[in-house]
Amino acid sequence: MSTKGLLIVLSGPSGVGKGTVCSALRSRVPDLIYSVSATTRQPRLGEVDGINYFFKGRDQFLSMIENDQLLEYAEYVGNYYGTPRDFVEETIANGKDIILEIEVQGALKVKEKFPEGIFIFLTPPSLDELKDRIVGRGTETQAVIDHRMSVAVDELDLIKHYDYAVVNDEINQACKRIESIIIAEHCKVRAQR
Amino acid sequence: MSTKGLLIVLSGPSGVGKGTVCSALRSRVPDLIYSVSATTRQPRLGEVDGINYFFKGRDQFLSMIENDQLLEYAEYVGNYYGTPRDFVEETIANGKDIILEIEVQGALKVKEKFPEGIFIFLTPPSLDELKDRIVGRGTETQAVIDHRMSVAVDELDLIKHYDYAVVNDEINQACKRIESIIIAEHCKVRAQR
Question: Does ATP-binding show up as a keyword for this record (chains A, B) (predicted)?
Fold first, then answer.
């Protein structure tokens, strides 16, 4: 077995179930560390620094960008969100695996800075199924649904940049496939040298 | 999931437990097809052609060599043994995985002809453990034991030509790792395209 941990990047289109699969995986594999994001937004009630997020001032965050301390970042509704490089690197240096759940564009940015990561694309069983899930969220207008579907179809084309594709047909099966990928990656001869 | 099957080549030094792991794996994964060897030796009582071996005349076997119908072959105590290419290719074309249990040199010959195979090297937990297993077989002389250990040490160096290394510390763990490798390989984006 490799003594170094792995960075597992779990991505896929909006509505595919990344969050649900990631939560299920964390309860099945308690040793798996969850990558904590940095953000400039204010903590909400009950949120703990270093557990839910690393809360940063805007200047601190801009300095992290400047010093290449983020594997990726994005601005959303006036706040910055990003993946601190240090936390990932310290975790894997300690021999632990770390999982990062992230949307498709963010994952591709991570790949540029951290190509040795294991990039897993979670796919819907079919486009109809994905549409049902997006519609099933409730109050979206037809225009929003159409836009989300169009983005999802574009994102599915980016699967070619990933190492693995896992179909999220059934939560336990999807988790089992991801667990298998992690076990197999630790057995790789390249990883062991 | 890929619609094509995979050729899984399970190899490793003499005494590491290839046969035991392979049998256990076959009962855990009933869909896995076992590669049947061709041989020129006479069938023993109860052996069935196409199940235990494909029994061939010497001329037939030589013609298979001539026509590149074997992924590898070797001569042993006056008889030929080899891996028929057709059986492997038909099985994977039908979408089924096939496992070939073979010694280290044979596996490397298979890799030359079938580089798309998944090459798994079964390793002992330690050299001491391997020695115990070789000695434990019983009636070998010290010279035979020393020779086998020396061959095993040389063979361990060939691990670099393999895709995966699986430690045979405990049979169920070794099987679980190999099952994980098979599941992961079916999720590879390359394999799905």
Answer: yes
Complex confidence, ipTM: 0.89
Whether residue A147 contacts residue A135, with contact meaning beta carbons closer than 8 Å, is answered with: no
Order of strands across the sheet that contains B79-84: B54-55, B38-39, B79-84, B70-76
Instruction: Judge: B181–A187 Cβ closer than 8 Å, yes or no.
Output: yes
Same domain, B130 and B43: no
Q: Are A47 and A138 members of one domain?
A: no
Structural domain harbouring A48 = 36-96
- Residues near B139 by beta carbon (within 8 Å), at least 6 away in sequence: none
Position A34 pLDDT exceeds 50: yes
**B contacts of A107 (beta carbons < 8 Å):** none
Q: Would the CB atoms of B187 and A164 count as touching at under 8 Å? A: yes
Mutate to test the interface with B, among A164, A166, A169, A190 (most CBs of B within 10 A): A164
Position B137 confidence tier, pLDDT thresholds 50, 70, 90: low
Q: What secondary structure letter does DSSP report for B49?
A: B
Q: Are residues B26 and B47 in the same domain?
A: no
Backbone φ and ψ for A136, nearest 5 degrees, come out as: -60, -15
For B149-166, the pLDDT digits (tens) are 888 888 889 999 999 999
CA distance A180 to chain B (A): 4
Is A15 annotated in a binding site? The answer is yes
Judgement on whether residues B128 and B173 belong to the same structural domain of the protein: yes
* CATH number where B146 lies: 3.40.50.300
